[in-house]
Design a protein that fits this description.
Shape: globular
Number of strands: 21
Structural class: alpha+beta
Distance between the termini: 29 Å
Bound molecules: 6-diazenyl-5-OXO-L-norleucine
Strand order of the largest sheet: 1-20-19-15-14-9-8
Helix content: 25-40%
Largest sheet: 7 strands, antiparallel
Length: about 575
Amino acid sequence: MKTRIAAALLVAVLAPGACRAPGAAGAPGAADRPPFAPTFPTGWRIAPGGRATFAPREMVASNAPLASAAGLELLTAGGNAIDAAVATGFALAVVYPEAGNLGGGGYAVIRMADGRTAALDYREVAPGGATRNMFVDPATGEATDASVIGHLASGVPGAVAGLLATHERFGVRSRAEVIAPALRYARDGFIVDSALAASLRTDSALICRFAGCARFFPGGRALRMGDTLRQPELARTLELIVASGVDGFYRGPVAQAVAAEMRRGGGLITQQDLASYRVAWRTPVTGTYRGHTVLAMPPSSSGGITVVEALNIIEAFGPPAPYGSLTSFHRMLGAFQLAFIDRNEYLADPNVISVPVEQLIDKAYARRQRARLDDRRYVSTRDLAPGLARREGEHTTHYSAVDRYGNAIATTTTINSLFGSGVWVPDAGFFMNNEMDDFTARPGTPNQFGLIQGEANAVAPGKRMLSAMSPTIVLDQSGQVLLVLGSRGGPRIITGVAQVIMNVVDHGMSLFDAMAAPRAHFQGFPESIRHEAGGFSGPVLDSLAAIGWSFEVGTTGSPVAIHRVRGGWEGTWDPRDAGGVSGR
Ligand code: DON
């Protein structure tokens, strides 16, 4: 776990208008109904009953206090939630280089106060020179690690095009204003907090294989908490984006710098690839869960469909089983299992593969899926084929913003692993993603998240690799924004987002408890529940084992969320991790 205390201190010192950190007592934001007070297992390390940050009017939540403060700056200057989110996104690229990025991509789900909804796909695409078996060693036939580390691992970045497209369509302040806080942090520097210092230390070997070593390990020594980090190369890149918009990144000096670094290191991305990159506006996947509306991300992310299919199957079991019970875990994990089997079979880039979206999120289909699960025993993934008739034919970060008008945006962005492929573009000042690993490198071989994916997600030039990112907006029964959330964690994003929704909707928890509650994850293969140490009570663990489940201990993603409460909003990052919430 990252040290949160120093990060929280930095919020208080550096972010004007920053609100109370999670855990502070006495916030006035009681939920619309009195929250259910859960009992967590005795071995669980986070006590229930903490409070998320409260703000009456508007709020930004992210994994970095300075990035949330950048969003608040825009809100205070008269901007809307979209301006705030875009400012937060650019700022994350500066102050949170392990996951915030210009060299990656992401997704956004938007709901404007007038009821308009939109989903933006700014996922990376495979370079024009990519080939189906580029990550298979011809000598051994085995998958190589080139999809994870180094120049070949990168897809053509979509982040800058995505942030600018979001801003152009829905923002109200100028481009210069939404980039200004990030530019200031890059040019003037900011004080390194404990979270950044720790992640640099953890990934020193990766970073120092490539050009970023000089910037983050000056004189061969890792930046330490309290040091000032200035990033003049990144500041120049941001200035070019202010001046020329997408062309400031996808053409000219920045594109030349990316292509030159690719040539130097044997990568594939060319200036032509960059100039051809386009975002895709899509229609959100719209599901319902116990009378709530779930606005979620469609393919090329699997997130929305998989969250909605899993929630539909859980709903098909009837009223929620009591929180923490054997039945609730058994049903939830079985629903995740079926939804992941479908994910890995049917979902891929919709520009290339036809995805049966409506069938997968259909309630009648969920009832048929539910009937395939046995309420008394675990059914092996090997015995569960994908549910439809045969078809013819760790690093990410989430941020959410809401404003005084009722606009809301959920955005998840990533360079995949921490610091992406490790490749840092000298002269442009950012890390490149290793998103190519999200393709099926070799059918039957698990990727870095253990996902065994299908043919539909094979590498092809210009294709988007399947994602699990799940920016999601939940509306309550009266159609008002209730939750704006998302997570990091690869496939654990899907199950983490679903569990936070269930904790709030099914169990009536406060946002803090919904986020603090222990989570469990199951994706079909490997055939073991991934759960957090101390997260199951002894009797539940024993009973799950008795009906056939297996287990492994591991982390389960890291959500960031905003929740509407009486009189305003509550927001928090995962209490297991670092983050910041700013509001007013
Ligand atoms: O798009 C995806 O599903 C992955 N690239 C996300 C990676 C991720 O969440 C890593 N964070 N821990």
